Amino acid sequence: MKRVHLEMTKMRVTAIAAGVALAMSLAACGGGGGDGDGDGGDNATPEFNAGVNKVYNPSDKKGGTLKMANDADFDSLDPGDTYYGYSWNFVRNYTRSLVTFKSAPGEKSNELVPDLAESLGEASPDAKTWTYKLREGIKYEDGTPVKSEDVKYAVARSLDKDILVNGPTYFNDFLDLKGYAGPYKDKDKTMKKFTAVETPDDRTIIFHLIKPFSGFDYLAMLPSTAPVPAAKDTGTKYKEHVLSTGPYMFASNELEKRFTLTRNKYYDPKSDPDTGRKALPDEITVDLNVNQEDIDQRLQSGDLDVAISGLGVLAETRATILQDPDQKKFSDTADQARLWFTSFDNSVKPFDNIHCRKAVMYATDHEGYLRAYGGSSGGQIATNMMPPLIPGYKKIDLYEFESKPNGDIDKAKDELKQCGQPDGFTTNISYRTERAAEKATAEALQQSLDKVGIKTELKPYPQDDYGKIYAGNVAFSTKNKLGLRVYGWGADWNDGFGFLSQIVDSRVIRPAGNTNFNVNDPEIDALLDKALSTLDTKEREGLWAEIDQKVMEGAYYLPGVDAKQLLYRPERLTNVFITNAYNMYDYTTLGVQK
Amino acid sequence: MIVYIIRRLIAAVLLLFVVTAVVFVIFFEVPRLGGQTADDLASRYVGKTAGPEQTHLAAERLGFTDPLYEQYGRFIKGVVAGQDFDTGTSVEHCPAPCLGYSFKTQNPVLPDLLDRLPVTLSLAAGAAVLWLLGGVATGVLSALKRGSIFDRGAMGVALAGVSLPIFFTGLLALSIFSYNLKWTPPGGTNPMDQDNPWDWAASLILPWITLAFLYAAQYARLTRAGMLETMGEDFIRTARAKGLRERTVVVKHGLRSALTPILTIFGLDLGLLLGGAILTETTFSLPGIGQYAVIALNNQDLPKVLGVTLVGAVFIILANLIVDLLYAVIDPRVRAA
């Protein structure tokens, strides 16, 4: 178990009373805790956004302990059972999947490169069969070699959503499973019935899909392809010690408290020429369930290196940092592949009429929407559904959100006449109780819609149950007339499919747990299918933009804010840059100055 | 006395049953009254992408579709005789007293609680010593120097202590002493990971003082009020008239009489704290039972909630029992009765 050595000089209990007043002035001070002797080269001078599209404080110097903290717990450390962006980012320290995002700043970080595999996947002409060849000589932390059978097993076990409940279901949706439900249900670890994945030899793995998918390399990127030897799988306990193939391995894991990674001596950097991993620190510690306010303070004082959730500092800390030049120079604004929006429920009258939906689009005060998310530091006014970070993004502003940021009352009233509601109507707006920004959004919407006669009542619901029991539950939403639902969505990966599929494909609509609340358009479904089978990248990206256009023409969603967040990088961090793949600092390249 | 203790222990066990039954009812019946089904409850423990069939399977696996009395019976059986759990990939035996398996982590609850207990014990014990000594001493001095600058100042500080929430004073204390002055370690430092008692104490000094500040304030005010009342009694005047030293009059006669209500409250407070100092542990990110309770509540993880509730109830009952026994020590009238 890791022990922390403390420095404690002197206690002055009697100073506490004076400290209360002193704290008010000290709260504005602070700053990085490092010695500040940079290791290198270009871009080592702290300045605002020094880690955006470039490497701040570049270094190849190894050593030290990278200290990270999480204000909650991981959904799982098991690579086959996790579905958070920060987890997918971090897991690359102890696992290697078939392919991964390149660890590089700017646009290059959207690029998929081979990791465990020698190259990106080789697709059949119909994009239904994908073949990968593993690199030679890759070993686990215990020295045993990685085989293609282990990747097959990893994918197989991730199919069982009764056991490994958290991860995404892309393999369940795309593999030609023929009823196979995973080794825990099937009880056969040799996986004879898992014909959707073939391993003709120890280095080759072939995936057979039920439908074409030109973007299958994004699935090969998923942590579910990190190899797991069947003999060493401990099921739900595997998360307590994952067998490493990455540069680090688990040294200790105190559940819900903290875990520590140390170097994996069997990781060979020569087997990893493409990803850009640096593996600079000797050790990585991650504290769990840490008070978020404390995390922000520890970052600013230099006692912590990274807030692992990657969601940025709290709103109040953001305001303090941005107003203080000595703090601001240690921060970066990260664009997100995330959109804050409001959806309509077409089953709640009169939103079955497109003109009533358009009335809301025109009546909305978009600046008010943006203010709810902290103004320009929280993002920018969104005019269409795809965030700018998604390759293929095209600006679509059908309702003049940018030229008329406070809404267009005349056009809104005209649309109301066209939908047969010239004096307005009543409906309800739902939002997630715990999210202050969503509450503010709902209030801003209420005020702006009131100007055109649309009367609304606000309905808050707990965020954990929002999708399953409340706003995302079809019966509940219809019964409670939730015509407008405040929500947000982030891309599973920066690609049109990764962002749009779960919110515009009618075939993902289900009785509960919806992320697509109401888009049920055969033309959009057809475009999605066409994009999935289009192998040419540029052509595919054009199709995502076409889908976005159709969604906006149908007025299915009210886009609100293209999200940004403020990240803080303490002075002693080296090799810092934001990866567009995960919209936070890349966790495989960070180092620390001693 | 022995009979009294035995009766109290039997009552304690019965009370524990009642407490766990109430928690069960709250966990299951309140959502049901709000229109939620067993599947709705189970939906919290399945992933984001689970469909209705999977959710229902989870509801069955977690036992939510069984009648409430059956679920409760299984829980009590586990406490008394142990229980087997099917995790889906293996069957694990949970020896008695088994407080269940976490719905979220699929790990037994009791070992986690026992692992976190030393942190909470360290926090509660240290803070208790500080608030008792500090609060009582301040209260005594304030009472003896009634109306003085010390009295007014102490009661003013006491008012601040009672009024200011821990998440404010705690974060302020961290900001000043840990992150600006660097006198104390940062938040999240586990006291049980330290090499020596000095480092252990150093990792707890801020949480101790912050917590003690809140309680000492109450105790100072209580002690002052009690002392003022007692020091005005005839027997005190008699004691002084007999020529006893003032220190003996104050401590042996005055304070001893004023201690009874303080002892009562101390027992309650300490018992409550031992069940988890939720706000303090959350503010300082200490991995104790209080933090565990917050995790359990956030995840709506019934076995963990039950485990924390039971531990808390055990400590409160024990603390009250000890307080009742101590009455006999400090108050001869109780002994005589």
Describe this protein with a few key phrases.
heterodimer; A: about 600 residues; alpha+beta; D-Maltodextrin-Binding Protein, domain 2; Dipeptide-binding Protein, domain 3; 6-stranded mixed sheet; 5-stranded mixed sheet; 18 helices; about 25% helix; about 20% strand; globular; B: about 325 residues; mainly alpha; MetI-like fold; 2 domains; two-stranded antiparallel ribbon; 2 strands; about 75% helix; about 0% strand
Condensed summary:
The complex is a heterodimer of chains A (594) and B (337). With 594 residues, chain A is of the alpha+beta class.
Q: In CATH terms, what is the fold-level topology of the largest domain in chain B?
A: MetI-like fold
Q: What's the CATH architecture of the largest domain in chain A?
A: 3-Layer(aba) Sandwich
Number of domains of chain B: 2
CATH class of the largest domain in chain A: Alpha Beta
Task: For the largest sheet of chain B, list the strands in their spatial order.
Answer: 1-2
Mean pLDDT of chain B: 85
Strand order of the largest sheet of chain A: 13-17-12-16-14-15
* Name of the level-1 CATH class of the largest domain in chain B: Mainly Alpha
Q: What is the CATH topology of the largest domain in chain A? A: D-Maltodextrin-Binding Protein, domain 2
Q: What's the CATH H-level homologous superfamily of the largest domain in chain B?
A: MetI-like
Structural class of chain B: mainly alpha
Annotation, overall tally of beta strands of chain B? 2
Largest interface: A-B, 68 and 65 residues
- Computed over alpha carbons, the radius of gyration of chain A is 25 Å
What is the helical fraction of chain B, as a range of percent? over 70%
Low-confidence stretches of chain A: 1-41
